[in-house]
């Protein structure tokens, strides 16, 4: 009851301060008729810099303000973006991209091949601190430059002139073209970044992009306003005149805003309301290539003992957790989710299952006793940290009770999204909520996450054999052999229990039926740039 009162207060405050457009459904409809889309996007973003961001909600802003060499169309296909065409050498190692002559930044300056060369090398430069730098290791000498073993001039990306970009890879990469529409591969402006430093991404005046929209307002912790970028090369195909992206992680307030007609769509919905919304036909559930899991700090006792990690993983009843969430999620029996391509069928089916969908308390207690903690005796109290969200809280509370059956006391600590990201990155935790949605449809987007050189590996776990298998998979041309390397790599990850997978994601959201021609990717991106309001 108290939580619902708080949510109501938040909604009223939003209305008074003008966060939501209009005061009733009629006014919302009027706004919609003017091709203005209002959408609750998620929490306040930590980064809107394409090189630094790792969060999905922030990426949904970035993909509307920037564009890569390629883009994703309304059917999910990779199509020409900033590059009007490209060629690939017979050995699959050299790509030559030709930048559109009418490609412009939002301030009217031309987008050039030099912008891409600068952006990619900036992301690879260890001084930048990009957690996604490894996503560019496919490029010749990219990893060596990142590790200080090569110079920037050695990296295989070179602007031959203003409109021609040549890229040389370490090995043939079948999904490289798809990678070029991922945010880490987006261009950024050297003059802007060098003049304003880290602040360039926080002010609409300096947040210069090359995509279909430009940022015109950012009321921090409230909303971000994007308006159509008339300098975009394909501006004529963009129907929406404005997108207002609300920044809210209060699920009850989100639902109330949607119900009151104040927004056209929302993410973050109270789980107890999902059955009703589903029955009423208001809820939308989209497939998502993603895994919800817990990081465990593998260098901190008692999690430096593999038996402890395995015991706590086995004590989790994943079927019960999925039932709590009500969004058609599936229990995670490995790390790579269903829907990812394997050799001839689904990778998850080919790799097999490593975790039971129901708890195995008997084996968990046995392992804990072998590790020196019979019935939890002398086991230190531990803390689970997670970002503030009703769903994360429910999962944490359920796991808290499941681990209590082992005699383990668990403290739960919720915090702002930005704080959780920082603590995970600094390895300042014992157990932390985490999640990963793929960057492309291939097992590699999940498995190279846990290499020793990955900036997104928050576990303090590393394994030389694992690294070797991932490197082999990235360099082999034989498709079946490549997949076998990845199957072997996942086996090491799961048998070492470096992480605790919990469930495979779906995307649960609300969106008015009058919003047409949008595409929600299985990778989690909301491609609303093609959307239009149809009454």
Helix fraction bin? 25-40%
Which residues form runs of ≥5 with pLDDT under 50?
A: 1-32
The CATH superfamily of the largest domain is Dipeptide-binding Protein, Domain 3
Oligomer status: single chain
Share in β-strands: 15-25%
Largest sheet: 11 strands, mixed
Structural class: alpha+beta
Instruction: Evaluate the radius of gyration.
Output: 23 Å
The best one-word shape is globular
- Report the end-to-end length measured between terminal Cα atoms: 37 Å
- Helix segment count? 18
Mean pLDDT score: 92
CATH topology of the largest domain: Dipeptide-binding Protein, domain 3
- How many strands appear in the DSSP assignment? 21
CATH architecture of the largest domain: Roll
Query: What is the domain tally?
Result: 2
CATH top-level class of the largest domain: Alpha Beta
Keywords: Signal, Transport
Membrane topology: Lipid-anchor
GO molecular function: peptide transmembrane transporter activity
Family: Belongs to the bacterial solute-binding protein 5 family.
What does this molecule look like?
This protein has 535 residues and is of the alpha+beta class. The protein has two domains: 42-207, Dipeptide-binding Protein, Domain 1 (Dipeptide-binding Protein, domain 1, Alpha-Beta Complex), CATH 3.90.76.10; 289-507, Dipeptide-binding Protein, Domain 3 (Dipeptide-binding Protein, domain 3, Roll), CATH 3.10.105. It contains 18 helices and 21 strands. The strands form five sheets. Strands 1, 8, 9, 10, 11, 12, 13, 14, 15, 16 and 17 form an eleven-stranded mixed beta sheet that branches. Strands 4-5-7-6 form a four-stranded antiparallel beta sheet, with helices on one face. A two-stranded antiparallel ribbon has the order 2-3. The longest helix has 17 residues, at 479-495. It starts with a helix and ends with a strand. Mean pLDDT is 92; it is low at 1-32.
């Amino acid at each position: 009851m108290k939580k619902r009162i708080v949510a109501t207060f938040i909604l009223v405050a939003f209305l008074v301060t003008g966060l939501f457009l209009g005061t009733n459904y009629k006014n919302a409809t009027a706004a919609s008729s003017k091709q203005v889309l209002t959408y609750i996007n998620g929490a306040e973003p930590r980064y809107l810099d394409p090189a630094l961001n790792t969060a999905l909600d922030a990426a949904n802003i970035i993909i509307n303000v920037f564009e890569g060499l390629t883009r994703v169309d309304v059917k999910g296909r990779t199509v020409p973006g900033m590059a009007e065409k490209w060629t690939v050498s017979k050995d699959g190692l050299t790509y030559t991209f030709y930048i559109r002559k009418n490609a412009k930044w939002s301030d009217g300056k031309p987008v050039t091949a030099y912008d891409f060369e600068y952006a990619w090398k900036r992301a690879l430069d260890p001084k930048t601190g990009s957690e996604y730098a490894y996503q560019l290791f496919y490029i010749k000498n990219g990893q060596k430059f990142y590790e200080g073993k090569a110079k920037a001039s050695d990296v295989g990306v070179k602007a031959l002139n203003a409109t021609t970009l040549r890229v040389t890879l370490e090995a043939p990469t079948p999904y490289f073209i798809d990678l070029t529409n991922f945010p880490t591969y987006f261009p950024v402006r050297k003059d802007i970044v060098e003049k304003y430093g880290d602040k360039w991404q926080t002010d609409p005046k300096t947040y210069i992009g090359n995509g279909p929209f430009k940022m015109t307002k950012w009321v921090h912790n409230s909303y971000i306003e994007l308006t159509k970028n008339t300098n975009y090369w394909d501006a004529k195909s963009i129907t929406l005149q404005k997108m207002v992206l609300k920044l809210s992680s209060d699920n009850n307030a989100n639902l109330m805003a949607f119900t009151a007609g104040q927004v056209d769509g929302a993410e973050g919905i109270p789980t107890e309301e999902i059955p009703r919304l589903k029955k009423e036909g208001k809820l939308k559930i989209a497939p998502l290539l993603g895994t919800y899991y817990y990081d465990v700090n593998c260098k901190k006792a008692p999690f430096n003992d593999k038996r402890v990690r395995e015991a706590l993983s086995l004590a989790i009843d994943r079927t019960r957790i999925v039932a709590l969430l009500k969004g058609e999620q599936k229990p995670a029996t490995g790390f790579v989710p269903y829907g990812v391509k394997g050799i001839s069928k689904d990778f998850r089916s080919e790799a097999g299952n490593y975790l039971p969908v129901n708890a195995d308390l008997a084996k968990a207690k046995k392992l804990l006793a072998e590790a020196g903690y019979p019935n939890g005796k002398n086991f230190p109290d531990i803390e689970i940290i997670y970002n503030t969200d009703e769903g994360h809280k429910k999962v944490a509370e359920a796991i808290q009770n499941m681990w209590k059956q082992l005699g383990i006391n668990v403290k739960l600590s919720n915090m702002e999204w930005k704080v959780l990201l920082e603590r995970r990155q600094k390895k300042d935790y014992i157990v932390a909520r985490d999640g990963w949605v793929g960057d492309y449809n291939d097992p590699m987007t999940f498995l190279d996450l846990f290499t020793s050189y990955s900036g997104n590996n928050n576990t303090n776990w590393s394994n030389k054999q694992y690294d070797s298998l991932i490197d082999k998979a990235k360099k082999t041309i034989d498709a079946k052999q490549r997949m076998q390397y990845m199957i072997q790599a996942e086996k090491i990850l799961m048998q070492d229990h470096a992480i605790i997978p919990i469930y495979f994601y779906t995307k649960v959201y609300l969106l008015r039926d009058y919003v047409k021609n949008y595409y929600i990717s299985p990778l989690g991106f909301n491609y609303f740039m093609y959307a239009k309001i149809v009454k």
